[in-house]
């Protein structure tokens, strides 16, 4: 729990340095907040190209200046200058994607916090106190249950849950359906909407945290003068350490949860079913839930692409260090050659003018061993007996099994038609394994090759079983969940 905010200097530093506070202190803060809210929140967009965002801001400024009447233009600067200033002050993040011709703009975590805080100020609708209390109670109950080491206590809680489920099942069998009243339904929908919006906003902070951790690790390596092997070991150890932080573990667990096709389908199904209720149908057009799965996947992919780019930057850093070392070695060799030419005609008069560390290794020709013929084969019997070649099974020489990777790729591409991802279990269910365990290993090899290109995900946090038949018997193989992406 934070207790440093009782310190005046700490609070003063935060209010001076934090970008969210600086945004709200700007003279044109209402214009900035209104435009960013319309462009990113209302449009449900994560990022914009430079030209598109510049056009949107230009139209927004034109409408704002026209509405000001004869009092002059309150926003006289061009849209491009505003975007450049907002990027410099940390309200927007401007960067270039690989191979992109224009810059990309996205909100920074501080700006997300400012927008969330602005939204919290305007509570025109009712406050769902009961839903929040129930959420707090359930979370506290789950934490207490999950952290308890008392077997009897946990058993009593499970029995109480079973009794409650049995009671509800009996009521349903008797035709008694208990349904939430409209107020409770709207109350819980509002709470879900707020949680979903905060979850999407958190992704920018997660991405920024990864970027800061990686930058810190690179700066530490740059400031140290180590050998290339030490730098390599320390940089990749730092990268592993980033993924072992609470932030890294949380994101890895979230990504594994989200990449499960069954959970994605269930999320879409629940969102569609929710707005079929007459009491909530009017909220569909303004809700984030119908597109929540797409927005979460996009946000998660952005974080995943960021970590991939960071690793690539580390690789380039090592390559640049290697290039500099090789160039320096070449310069030293040239200097030695020039010195040798200078003393070619006037060698040093003293007998010993240089020392070599250690004794030189001299390999003389006469030290090599003479040729020795191979030992003669000694047979155990002087009268060898002819063997029977009929007893040798030669079918294995002709029945060689070959697995064509292109055929497996074709099956996967066929299953991906109209889908964003497909699991190996679904591929095997549609096209049963014909060549046993070797075919499954070939699928796993394809996933290993495609994972660095973000065409596959090997989810080690979840296991699944694959079944295949061979010689009339059914075999089961348990391996990490494999997802092939479009």
Summary?
This protein has 17 helices and 6 strands. The protein is mainly alpha-helical. A hairpin with a 2-residue loop joins β5 and β6.
How would you describe this protein?
- The chain is mostly helical and 486 residues long.
- It has three domains: 118 residues, Arc Repressor Mutant, subunit A (Orthogonal Bundle); 180 residues; 82 residues, Translation Initiation Factor IF3, CATH 3.30.110.
- Helix content is 59%, strand content 8%.
- It has 17 helices and six strands.
- Helix 2 crosses helix 6, helix 9 packs antiparallel against helix 10 and helix 9 runs parallel beside helix 13.
- The longest helix has 51 residues.
- The protein starts with 7 loop residues before the first helix and ends with a strand.
- The model has no long low-confidence stretch (mean pLDDT 77).
Tell me the layout of helices and strands:
Blueprint: H1 8-17, H2 19-25, H3 29-42, E1 48-49, H4 50-67, H5 79-88, E2 92-95, E3 104-107, H6 109-121, H7 129-147, H8 151-173, H9 182-222, H10 228-244, H11 246-258, H12 261-274, H13 292-342, H14 395-398, H15 405-415, E4 421-423, H16 424-430, H17 437-450, E5 456-470, E6 473-485
Antiparallel strand pairs: 1-3, 2-3, 4-6, 5-6
Helix pairs in contact: 2-6, 6-9, 7-9, 9-10, 9-13, 10-13
Keywords for this entry:
486 residues; mainly alpha; Translation Initiation Factor IF3; DUF3375 domain-containing protein; coiled coil; 8% strand; three-stranded antiparallel beta sheet; DUF3375; single chain; Arc Repressor Mutant, subunit A
